[in-house]
């Protein structure tokens, strides 16, 4: 009898086919498959997983097209691109951190161009005012009344460039938009368009003229992506593409808002076994009570992850399974997204800093120490 894949309720092969024996080529693609049981004999739950898998396979071409379009401009940075797609599928926000020149802003603008939706770029500066972000009331001398002038926050995709350069009153206005998906101008509240994503960038090496983001706002970002340097081969390709006076940044708009809604509904239907749910809770709980999981790291943790981390881990794991063209979640999906979900939610102590340990080191020990189902 075939072994059951981790996280899946039915007996299946590694391609995700319930109760099947499949043959694969060297790239891992199915070249021949033989059903061990007739579909009508499958349990209802197994049929649901199988149907979800078929729908995911059908939509894989859509996501592949988006990746291909982004790849026309962005060289490498696969983790960054996947993180942006995860945020799009989960209807959430992303904080991107990296030194200047790593295509953070270009990646966001390129993603926005692949979607038939409105896009705003806001350059955050120390003198930025909330009205510059959300809009303001304009007085009309003709009738003695006020009219509302909406700001650049009223867009589907908002690029908040160098977000940590704006003062606290601007951050508070952005916080309402991110969490409540509405803004308050004068005495009125105005809902934001759907989809609505804030994709923010910040430079970690320059501190002059910057304001640390409030913890409440950092926690609103589903993912914190750290962007690294490209490989030598990737940088050579960047040189060949971009080292000219008029580089080609054109891509085709291949996604509509309707496509995004459909893909999100499909991501929500990805199957997650109860053991995977318990594993997610254990990972988050281990950042608060590490001793209960045999981890000797309590002295290094000032604050553990909030329940929002649990929610985002589950959502991101489902979306990651969809990017991997599967209709169910495995423990590896959870591990693949855990660093990006947890790194900005675990606060370390001064003792940890003295040992030159950061939140990523803590998350790595949690992932290594908590038992995988």
CATH architecture of the largest domain: 3-Layer(aba) Sandwich
Distance between the termini: 21 Å
- The gyration radius over C-alpha positions equals 23 Å
CATH homology superfamily of the largest domain: P-loop containing nucleotide triphosphate hydrolases
Which regions are unreliable across 5 or more consecutive residues at pLDDT < 50?
A: 1-42
Largest sheet: 5 strands, parallel
Mean pLDDT: 81
* Residue share in β-strands: 15-25%
Helical percentage: 40-55%
Number of domains: 3
Structural class: alpha/beta
The general outline is globular
In total, the number of strands is 13
Strand numbers in spatial order across the main sheet: 4-7-10-3-11
Order of helices and strands: EEHHEHEHEEEHEEEHEHHHEHHEHH
Please identify the top-level CATH class of the largest domain: Alpha Beta
What is the third-level CATH name, the topology of the largest domain?
A: Rossmann fold
Describe the protein's architecture and organization.
- It is a single chain.
- With 373 residues, the chain is of the alpha/beta class.
- The chain has 3 domains: 1-42, no CATH class; 43-64 and 258-369, Magnesium chelatase subunit I, C-Terminal domain (Helicase, Ruva Protein, domain 3, Orthogonal Bundle), CATH 1.10.8.80; 75-255, Rossmann fold.
- It has 13 helices and 13 strands.
- It has helices spanning 44-71, 78-90, 104-113, 130-134, 168-180, 215-218, 232-242, 257-268, 274-286, 307-323, 331-342, 350-354, 359-369; strands at 20-24, 30-35, 94-97, 119-123, 135-140, 145-150, 157-161, 182-185, 188-191, 197-202, 223-226, 301-303, 347-348.
- The strands form 5 sheets. It has a 5-stranded parallel sheet with strand order 4-7-10-3-11.
- Helix 10 (307-323) crosses helix 11.
- The longest helix has 28 residues, at 44-71.
- The radius of gyration is 23 Å and the shape is globular.
- It starts with 19 loop residues before the first strand and ends with a helix.
């Amino acid at each position: 009898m075939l072994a059951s894949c981790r996280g899946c309720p039915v007996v299946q092969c590694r391609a995700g086919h319930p109760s099947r024996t499949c043959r694969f080529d060297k790239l891992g693609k199915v070249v021949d498959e033989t059903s061990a049981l007739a579909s009508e004999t499958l349990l209802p739950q197994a049929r649901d997983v199988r149907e979800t898998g078929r729908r995911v396979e059908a939509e894989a071409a859509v996501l592949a097209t988006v990746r291909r379009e982004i790849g026309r401009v962005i060289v490498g940075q696969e983790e960054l691109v996947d993180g942006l797609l995860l945020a799009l599928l989960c209807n959430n926000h992303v904080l991107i951190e990296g030194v200047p020149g790593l295509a953070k802003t270009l990646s966001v603008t390129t993603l926005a161009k692949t979607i038939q939706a409105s896009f705003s770029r806001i350059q955050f500066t120390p003198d930025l005012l909330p009205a510059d972000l959300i809009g303001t009331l304009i007085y009309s001398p003709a009738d003695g009344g006020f009219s509302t002038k909406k700001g650049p926050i009223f867009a589907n995709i908002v690029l908040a460039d160098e977000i940590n350069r704006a003062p606290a009153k601007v951050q508070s206005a952005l916080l309402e938009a991110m969490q409540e998906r509405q803004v308050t101008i004068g005495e009125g509240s105005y809902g934001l368009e759907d989809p609505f994503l804030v994709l923010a960038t910040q430079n970690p090496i320059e501190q002059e003229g910057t304001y640390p983001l409030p913890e409440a706002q950092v926690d609103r970002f589903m993912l914190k992506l750290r962007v690294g340097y490209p490989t030598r081969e990737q940088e050579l390709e960047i040189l060949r593409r971009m080292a000219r006076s008029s580089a080609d940044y054109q891509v085709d708009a291949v996604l509509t808002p309707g496509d995004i809604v459909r893909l999100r509904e499909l991501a929500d239907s990805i199957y997650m076994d109860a053991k995977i749910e318990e594993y997610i809770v254990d990972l988050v709980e281990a950042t608060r009570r590490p001793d209960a999981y045999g981890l000797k790291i309590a002295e290094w943790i000032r604050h553990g992850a909030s329940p929002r981390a649990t929610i985002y881990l589950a959502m991101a794991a489902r979306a990651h399974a969809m990017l991997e063209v599967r209709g169910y979640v495995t423990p590896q999906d959870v591990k693949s997204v855990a660093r990006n979900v947890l790194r900005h939610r675990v606060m370390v102590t001064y003792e940890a800093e003295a040992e030159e340990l950061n939140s990523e080191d803590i998350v790595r020990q949690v992932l290594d120490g908590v038992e995988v189902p």
